Amino acid sequence: MSAVIRRGLGVILVLLGVMLLIFVVLRIIPGDPASVLLNEHASEDSIRRLTESMGLDKPLPVQFLDYLKNALRGDLGQSYYMRKPVLSLILTAFPYTLKLTALSASFAWIFGILAGVVSAVYHDRLPDHLFRGISLLGISVPVFMVALFLQYLMYFRLSLLPLMYDGSFVSMILPAAALGWNSAGSVARLTRSGLMEQLDSPYLDTARAKGLSTKKAILFHGLRNAILPVITLMALQLSGMLSGAVITESVFGISGLGKLALTAVQTRDMPLLQGTVLFTALVISVGNIIADVTNTLLDPRLRTKS
Amino acid sequence: MNKDLLLEIKDLTVSVKRKKEAVPVVRGVDIDIPRGGIVGLVGESGCGKSMTAKSVNRILPPFAETTGGSILWHDSPGETTDLLKLKEKEIRKKCGTEIAMVFQEPMTSLNPMMRVGDQIREVLKIHKIEKDPAVSKERVVKMLGAVGIPQPELRYNSWPHELSGGMRQRVMIAMAMICSPKLLIADEATTAVDVTIEAQILDLIRDMCHASHMSALVITHNMGVVSAICDHVYVMYLGSIVEKAPVRELFTNPLHPYTRGLLSSIPRIGNNPEYLETIPGNIPVVRKPFSGCDFCMRCSDDVRKCFMESPEMREAGNDHYVRCHTALTGPDPGESKGTE
Amino acid sequence: MKKTVLVTSAILTATLFLSACGGVSPAAGTGDAPAAGAGSGGGTSAGLSGDGELRIALNADIVNMDVHRNTNDYLIPMNVFDTLFAVEKNADGSSSIVKSLVDDYSISDDGLTYSFTLRDGVVFSDGTPLTADDVRFTFERILTLPDSQQTDYAISIKGAQDLLDKKADELSGITVQDDTHFTITLAEPFSGFLAQLATPSTSIFSRSLVNEAGEDFGIDPKKTIGTGPYIITSWEQGSGMTLEYNPRYWGSEPSVKKVTAKIMDPATMDMAFQKGDIDILDCLFLDSAIVDSVYKQKYADSIVSVDRLGMNYFILNEKIGPLSDVSVRKAIQMAVDRQSILDSIYSGDGKLEDGIFPSGCLSYSTDNQGWLKYDPEGAKKLLSDAGYPNGFDMEVSLDSSAAETAKRALEIIAQNLQDVGINASIRSYDRASYLDLRNGGNMNSYLALWLLDYNDPDNVIYTFFGSRSNTVIRSNNYPDENVIGRIGDARFIVDNDKRMQEYAALEKKLVQDDAVWVPLYSLKHLFVKGERVASFTPQWAGWSDMYFSGVELK
């Protein structure tokens, strides 16, 4: 129990640190939000007026403390660019990212584990090479290219799937595939290597001696052992996806967290940027904790020791 | 002599794929296992005894395969099946139910991710015996008690790493015995445990065999184990059986030079403490085809004939057989090739 | 591992083959309706999205629909709101200002007082009637909104400065007589005023509706209400928006009854248009190589082009190094091979410009054209005479979010400079840092594009040289206070001919005598119309934003 509390405190510290860091960095780097907002029609006067109205002329520590005070009350400020409360923008964008992540992760993990198992069982034969090739492509080809290629193939040439996300489930398939391919590749490789390690284990002999066919022995006994590191990987992948897949969301027109963060960076929209970074830090911290906890829960050898 | 045999291994050959070559590691082995009898198979590491055993319940590793011979299973007198001719599905049916195996390393032979009770119960599940989970659990608990595990209801839920080596081996035995098999194969079952535990395990095996008229094939490199529980013993060298006899007969009258070497290399209290008897040389790694006796390189009784001709198995009386040119007649002083 | 690589290559080749088969099915399916994409191999092009729907693609989302708060996105102001006047393009290519919300008007002799009569019976799309008070409200808001970006459009009205400085709380220059009659008095005469009233920047808002909407005005489609031909039915931020015809619109019913605008990146737009899922494609967003190889070949008959009212300039910062020497700047003017940029990057779709005012602009002076020739040898000589025989270092700043064409143009310019011995290097900045550097007056040299908001010379010349702070913000740092003063004064010259003459003189002084920048070219803006579009008239100044009422569907 105290371990959980300790982890919780750790997360809070991380979040505070992140807040401070992003706050300072944003104000040091070149690029002033008023200029960006006013764009081509800026004049010295209008920039000054806008800066004042944004409260950016106050001294740094004052700005930070104001922000902190508000953040504790749940008010993350208002986006300069989009003129809406940051928290509501994030909460509106998150469900899209969540949907994308859910579909993406399912695809990645199901395909990844299947591929890994087949690869291990038929190792060094055709199915293995086939799946390893596909995994390699997934890991090495950048998401942007994968996304464009899938669009070209599935929409342009074969007219099978819609071009962009329009709210329907069907239109989420391509983005999920594009995003998931990379994760699938990692999962497949880790599953394959993990399972192959187990293939020499004596307990597989025991299982066969008990009457299990080789294939069933590998699946029920071998996989159970090999899957541990894969689950940790999956938990980490999940938190990565949840922080927003910028490129996938941009290409397919999904208004998720990644797109929001990108817009915030480009427009130096400080409240929005601070908000999204904070949210991302939270998601990743929690994801890491979940990964650790899952690992401990699943491996009985770790459990009884603690 | 027509004994009531449960298993007859006839002329079994097992080959191993090494760099695209098929190298035979079990060469024409014959072993008879009587119903209710405990047979020992003895030899150095690498002589092929494990491969022989694993051919019976077909758990050979992917790089090995049986290339000849037959394994006759006499279900009941009159009903005989060649195990080697059975399909995968059919042999799996026999595994765990009629033929069971106990392995050497219980820590790695048990799945670290499953509770020991569940692993034993899995045998029942695989073969669809006892559908009712409560009843099957009860049966497992009883078995755990029978193998001498204290507090079996609690121990059911233990993880393998929570048990000591001896306990784990008992679990393995419980797993093997749960369906009352006709044949128990113990592959180096006590090699990894200490001497006191070894004695307990051996007693357990012997008692269970006698109690249920179960046969056992005990594979070991330890002559002491053989003398403790076996009725018959087969000595194996380089894939062939070189001597077979009832246990008492072998120990009082070892004929094959290899057997004699094995027996004399057991350290005895009272003998010279500084000098251990050994058999010179090692098992050769690469087995080139050789027309003479395999053992002649390391044999001290060899004659010129041993290089040229491979000896046949010959009876020496009292159900004692040996494969050697000089064993029955003694070395011919004129033909001795001299010292090395 | 080798085998894996072999199989990987096999997979890649196989998928390439796969993508080569399965031909393109033109105009199959809508791309809107969710399951419509499901493989109709060769669908009919019989307007599946019929009922007057127009589908377009945007390259970036609209930030704010409130035109007072942003100067980039005119799509909504142009289609959901109206202005007092409008601009019409004539058959000969020239444009004229026509009445829109205004029914009648007169200007006093001294050019200071404008009297207007509003059109009768105009209502906002929710039924609220338009009154003269709304006009007053609109201009006061332009001046009082803290983050207003359109103050330039109201600043010439009398009392505007006071309102801006918070010295007054009313705009004294506007008087409302009754619901349809009002007058606007200027502080000084300004002949560009009517043109300003014809730009989307001065869209008329409703006092009651805007106040009711509060902070949601410009953000919530349901609360952003105008008098124009369309209403916004939905806006999914980051995704796109839909507009529908406003049945209460006072003007003639347009052919387009519904507009779907989706945000896509260029490769996606290209695919979508060729598939028939977009009706009008803006070539500005595409790579010019694709425009040349695909669109000018396959869709040559569907290309609509318009001259853009605006031009590109290569700005030089007089405060940095050798650029303070006029001979050096003149040398640079001669060193740039503008024709080659125009030909290689823009396929010749445009023309060279030699001054400040581009062709089409009211003050365009043919006398000031034709003097600038590409002369690298002459440039080298000038440089060496000026004391830089071995050239000098110069930074060319690039906005990383700029279009591909701009980047390539800069590359050619940098190469031209290097050819005459100047060590010009391109440095890329992200947009915000870029603006920071430029606004501080410290950018060495850069490419500027100015598209006129309204057809008056002041709109361009004042922006760059009209005040000390403007010369800093545009990083040219032009020092001559006298000239700067003349630019400010030129706004108030009443006699149009005299005014144009003054602008011509100023243009000559700035560009030819003082070599403030390298004038480059004005470009054509190309669009491609899809199968379902009968005719399409781009916005008169060549903007990407279009008037949907100007599109005729088949």
Radius of gyration of chain B, in angstroms, nearest whole number: 21 Å
Span between termini of chain B: 42 Å
Global outline of chain B: globular
CA distance, first residue to last residue of chain C: 59 Å
Attribute tags:
heterotrimer, A: mainly alpha, MetI-like fold, 14 helices, B: 340 residues, eight-stranded mixed sheet, four-stranded antiparallel sheet, disordered C terminus
Layout of SSEs?
The complex is a heterotrimer of chains A (306), B (340) and C (554).
Chain A: H1 2-28, H2 33-38, H3 44-54, H4 60-72, H5 86-121, H6 126-140, H7 143-157, H8 170-199, H9 202-209, H10 214-242, H11 246-252, H12 257-266, H13 270-298, H14 300-305
Helix pairs in contact in A: 1-13, 5-6, 5-8, 5-10, 5-13, 6-8, 7-8, 7-11, 8-10, 8-11, 9-10, 10-13, 11-12, 12-13
Chain B: E1 5-18, E2 21-34, E3 38-42, H1 49-56, E4 64-76, E5 79-82, H2 88-94, E6 99-102, H3 106-109, H4 116-126, H5 133-146, H6 152-155, H7 165-177, E7 183-187, H8 195-212, E8 215-220, H9 223-229, E9 232-237, E10 240-246, H10 247-252, H11 257-264, H12 304-308, E11 313-315, E12 321-323
Parallel strand pairs in B: 3-8, 3-9, 6-7, 7-8
Antiparallel strand pairs in B: 1-2, 1-4, 4-5, 9-10, 10-12, 11-12
Chain C: H1 2-20, E1 53-58, H2 75-80, E2 85-89, E3 95-99, E4 102-107, E5 113-118, H3 132-144, H4 160-164, E6 174-176, E7 181-185, H5 193-196, H6 207-213, E8 230-236, E9 240-245, E10 258-263, H7 266-275, E11 280-282, H8 288-298, E12 303-307, E13 310-316, H9 326-335, H10 338-346, E14 350-352, H11 376-385, E15 393-399, H12 404-419, E16 423-429, H13 431-439, E17 445-451, H14 457-465, H15 468-473, H16 481-490, H17 496-513, E18 517-519, E19 521-529, E20 533-536, E21 551-553
Q: Mind explaining what this structure looks like?
A:
The complex is a heterotrimer of chains A (306), B (340) and C (554). Chain A starts with a helix and ends with a helix. Chain A has two domains: 54 residues, no CATH class; 213 residues, MetI-like (MetI-like fold, Orthogonal Bundle). Chain A has 14 helices and no strands. Chain A is 79% helix and 0% strand. Chain A has 306 residues and is mainly α. By secondary structure, chain B is α/β, with parallel strands linked by helices. In chain B, α4 crosses α5 and α5 crosses α7. Chain B is globular, with a radius of gyration of 21 Å. With 554 residues, chain C is α+β, with helices and mostly antiparallel strands. Chain C has 17 helices and 21 strands. In chain C, β6 and β7 form a beta hairpin. Classes of the chains: A mainly alpha (306), B alpha/beta (340), C alpha+beta (554). Chains A and C meet through α2, α3, α6, α7 and α11 of A and α1, α7, α13 and α15 of C.
